[in-house]
């Protein structure tokens, strides 16, 4: 019973993480609190991959809802067979959790690439990726951040938001991994039989 509650808690944790991912990704479209940079396409290209809005956001919300539904006893109304409720839904949960790892992993990779590349900003040479050739070394070179004159504080904006997205997607990956382990343990370690037992006549 404790393991079931633990699995349910893990699924519930995905919801606030997904909601925060959506909010943080949306904020990336408004550097300096202005929408004109998005309308003029003067944003880093990695914000258009919708990693926080779609993959670690909406898709993760859908997965979390399905996982919570599978963890609840109400699933029995749709599948009254004991073998179904106690075995097949565990396999479905494993598959969904693996999809969660894939979605959050995509968000983690894209956010990391966006952080390493740096923002798209106006410099003395015009609009460009001022730090694309630094391999992320600009992150510790605060003096170089002044190369970006517009949007204001765009370097700090991108660093903070992409870092938060990395942390959120990393937590989602960890939770989905723990969910996979928990479900496999329930299946393989004798919590209940994996195979459908034939009815005795």
TrEMBL record:
Transmembrane segments: 7-28, 48-70, 91-110, 159-178
Pfam families named among the record's database cross-references: L6_membrane
Primary localization: membrane
Subcellular location: Membrane
One cellular component (GO) term of this entry: membrane
Membrane topology label: Multi-pass membrane protein
UniProtKB keywords: Membrane, Transmembrane, Transmembrane helix
InterPro entries given in the database record: L6_membrane
Family: Belongs to the L6 tetraspanin family.
Protein name as it appears in the record: Transmembrane 4 L six family member 18
């Amino acid at each position: 019973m404790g393991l079931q509650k633990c699995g349910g808690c893990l699924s519930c944790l995905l919801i606030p993480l997904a909601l925060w991912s959506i909010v943080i990704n949306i904020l990336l479209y408004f550097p300096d609190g202005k929408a004109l940079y998005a309308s003029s396409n003067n944003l880093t290209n990695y914000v258009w991959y919708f990693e926080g809005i779609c993959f670690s956001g909406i898709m993760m919300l859908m997965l979390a809802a399905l996982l919570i539904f599978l963890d609840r006893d109400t699933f029995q109304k749709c599948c009254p067979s004991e073998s179904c409720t106690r075995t097949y839904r565990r396999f479905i949960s494993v598959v969904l959790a693996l999809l969660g790892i894939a979605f959050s992993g995509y968000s983690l990779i894209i956010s990391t690439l966006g952080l390493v590349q740096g923002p798209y900003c106006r410099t003395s040479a015009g609009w460009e990726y001022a730090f694309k050739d630094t391999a992320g070394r600009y992150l510790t070179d605060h003096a170089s951040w002044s190369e970006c004159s517009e949007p204001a504080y765009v370097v700090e904006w991108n660093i903070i938001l992409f870092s938060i997205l990395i942390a959120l997607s990393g937590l989602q990956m960890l939770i989905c991994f723990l969910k996979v382990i928990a479900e496999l343990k329930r299946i393989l370690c004798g919590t209940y039989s994996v195979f459908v037992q034939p009815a005795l006549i």
